[in-house]
Design goal:
Elements: E1 3-5, E2 12-14, E3 16-19, H1 32-44, E4 49-51, H2 60-68, E5 77-82, H3 91-105, E6 110-115, H4 123-139, E7 143-149, H5 153-160, E8 167-171, H6 185-192, E9 195-199, H7 217-229, H8 242-250, E10 257-260, H9 265-272, H10 282-290
Parallel strand pairs: 3-4, 3-10, 4-5, 5-6, 6-7, 7-8, 8-9, 9-10
Antiparallel strand pairs: 1-2
Helix pairs in contact: 1-2, 2-3, 3-4
Amino acid sequence: MEYTIFGKTGLKVSKLGLGGAPLAGDFGKTDEDEVQRMIHEALDAGINFIDTAPKYGFGESERRIGQALVGRRDKVVLTTKAIRSDLTYDYKSTIQSVEDSLRRLQTDWIDLLQIHDVETQPYELVVNETLPALEKLRQDGKIRYIGVSTRVLPLMMRYMKTERFDAIQFYARYMLADHTAKDEILPLAKEMGLGVINGSVLGMGILADSPAPFLEQEILDRAKERLEKLSFLRKTEPKGLIEPGMRFSLSQPDIHVSLTGADTTAVLRTNLSFCDGQGLDPEDQRKVYQLFQGQTLF
């Protein structure tokens, strides 16, 4: 396992992090006992960064993670989010969201609390109520650092420039089929010393030849065209873009944590095998960067 320092927080984090979305069945049915085994195996393998959210399984992901971390909490950089995009991000609701997360996670503190999917909320509401609520919780010692999460990069930049955040998380914006985060977001994050989390490294399953069931046909059609242009990277069929997709993110020095959406020990072990410091062949990397320059996928 490779480790790095998570921006100005000074936290030592594993380059591969465990993403919580699949743990509660958001991408398909999961077995709770298998999820518990998988979380423990991830920790034993050196993963020390776990990211989840109340939205994942409506709290079930947090509950399962909290159960697995009993007796091991101090070994993990634990991150979650507030609140859920179907709720209003007002001050009171934000406080309640974090209190509920603390209870489900069976912990007294959360290392990083991120404002989830800020594109679903008015900017003024987030700045005037959500963020002050998190700052109060940080003052009270219930959270240590504050982050922001969205795949809308211009909005991400707007929040970054407030200088009130310690970390950012985007998803499906630095992957083989859409690497738009590299143009402005990553350089600014590096300049500001922000921790950077890359979610959905495989593009909602697109690069694993198993697209998420909620993706619209228009997106799937566009993705198919891009996958054809990326076929030179395939080593095996099917799912031949998993390895280059993971290596593409894990070897990016300005990304501190690449999340794996594993829900079984088999998937986890596969992704762990890519944590050897090896990225794409330099010529392949150059070719990938030339493809889809400045073009988002969805």
